[in-house]
Amino acid sequence: MQALCSLDVQGQKGIDGAIGFIHDTEEETPEVLREAERMLLGSWHGRQGCDELLEKHSRHWDLKRMPVVDRSILRMAVWEMLSGHAAAPVAVAEAVHIAQEFSTAESPRFVNGVLMMIAREMPAPPAVEEEE
């Protein structure tokens, strides 16, 4: 999320720095770092589609006027839902948790409301047939 915020401010020219930020830790496994990079790039490159949904469902809020942290949290959660990376309830819960940690006191409720409206629009996941 922090790397995505950086990209939101710097634009595409900040991509190398954002990826470097992710990999500049010895606390995570290589698998976790690769997944974080995949999420960053997916969210960044998919932001147009995410932003369209966010603009549609963030009543009375222009996307450009949202705090950078909230916008980044929302983009990542919407990308997770659209890409199938995470089920809607999981993406919403993670986004609300991140908003509680990194944003304003009002942000978790705002993030939850916007994402729940988007989640209602999402197609249901395909049913998994049980083997007999």
Question: What structural keywords apply?
Answer:
mainly alpha; 7 helices; globular; N-utilizing Substance Protein B Homolog, Chain A; 132 residues
Describe the structure.
- The protein is an all-alpha fold and 132 residues long.
- It has one domain: NusB-like (N-utilizing Substance Protein B Homolog, Chain A), CATH 1.10.940.10.
- Helices cover 69% and strands 0% of the residues.
- It contains seven helices and no strands.
- Helix 5 runs antiparallel to helix 6.
What is this structure, in a nutshell?
This protein is mostly helical and 132 residues long. 69% of the residues lie in helices and 0% in strands.
Strand content: under 5%
Based on the structure given, which CATH architecture is correct?
A: Orthogonal Bundle
The value of Rg in angstroms is 15 Å
CATH class wording: Mainly Alpha
Which outline best applies?
globular
Low-pLDDT stretches? none
Instruction: List the quaternary state of the chains.
Output: single chain
User: Helix and strand succession?
Assistant: HHHHHHH
Break the fold down into its secondary structure elements and pairings.
Elements: H1 2-10, H2 15-23, H3 30-45, H4 47-57, H5 68-83, H6 88-102, H7 107-121
Helix pairs in contact: 1-2, 1-5, 2-3, 3-5, 4-5, 5-6, 5-7, 6-7
